[in-house]
Amino acid sequence: MRFRKPVALASSVLAVTVVMSSTTPARAIQPTGYAFSGTQVTLANAETGGPALTPGLHRTQLPNDGSPRSFTINRNQLRTFVASVLTYEKNGSNLLLADDHETEVKITSPDGDDCDTQKETLREGEPAGIVVTNVGFDDDEKLSRNGYVGSTCREATTLNVTVAHTGGGAGSTDAEILITDEPKGVGDTGAAASAAERTAIKAPAQAPKDEVAPGTGFAGAATLTPGTYPVKLKVGARIFYKVRLDWGQRLAATMTVPAKDSNFGSPIALESTISIWSPQRIFLGVQPKDYQFSREASMSANNSEVKTIGSYTAAVRWANRSASSGDNGEIAYATVPFTSVPGWYYVSVNTQPRTPVSSDTPVPATTPDVPAELSVAVVGEAQPGPRLVNSAGAEVAAPSAGQLSVGNGVSQDDPFPWVKTGLSAVAILAAGAAVVWGLRRKA
């Protein structure tokens, strides 16, 4: 299953607002890059084989000529997992790409069956940026978020994952590989998010607090707590924040750009896009019924018109993984089934010159930072979740009720809340019948 482009509040609301000042000096327009993290690994220089990756964040390099690199997944250790491959596509210090950049991720069985293949492309002339490609396996073949695959893929105890990258000239491209696992829910796992919990919501603005420097990657995403924070949108940059969600809670991120009363007009046409990502780095799309409310703001040159954009999630519930794909409300197709775990949810904001850039209106050497207001709200009371166990029946810990983001600045906490407590027992998980899904999204 691949993501398609998409687009009544609970009893409590916690809100965060980011306010940006327009009194900032002009800055050279260059891509700011991506801050890679993770344990360095060397993948096999082949279609199959390579190290067996375990849950956690890994870092590697991929040749730009399309040569395959591979690693393996031990199904005796992982039943339900997501493998998220992130690359940062660039063209030196230039803002725009000079050629097409593509990342392909493929899962195959030991018998050579193609279990799933996903690829993403950034085209020539598009701004430099990240590409996130997700593939995975689910222990429950009956879930609506899964697609059908051959029996050899379901029954295999070892899977090969092959990654190939093209574009960017000679040399190699850095990549992050995040492996996450979902323990099994037992007992009363509750119901999926209701229709009211799939409606569009906006985060209310709050009084400003001190500035919190944003991260430039998922691993370094800055933690936000309820309040208002001044930051700056730099042209050519993507910034990252994270907010903690518990069972039954929703996230809303709403941005006003440029900030009200700032009288800011960019010297060039710009686009700002806001996105929300799950703890597994799955892009969570929305489809609001209000056609004037979307994830993207298009700003004309020298125009100070204020626009409001935003994104939001369904309520986090275990049963969302079996939610019907035919009734998503104002949540995008294939998104509800992946809003199924508590933990850190990520908000990214990407600001770029509007493309294509006309030859008679070239990008200037410098441009000022864009003032804006970003509001983030956690909606709903934290609720008890299901019991989580491994295949041996041993209980797996989940975040405690009411645990939300705390503190200012950059936090390096685990991206998946049960990595330390639950995945220490992952080696004794038994392999089960599995069904592949393909989750992909170019950011």
From TrEMBL:
Residues 1-28 form the signal peptide. The keyword Transmembrane applies. Keywords: Membrane, Signal, Transmembrane, Transmembrane helix. It comes from Calidifontibacter indicus. The chain crosses the membrane at residues 418-439. It comes from the Bacteria. The keyword Membrane applies. This is Uncharacterized protein.
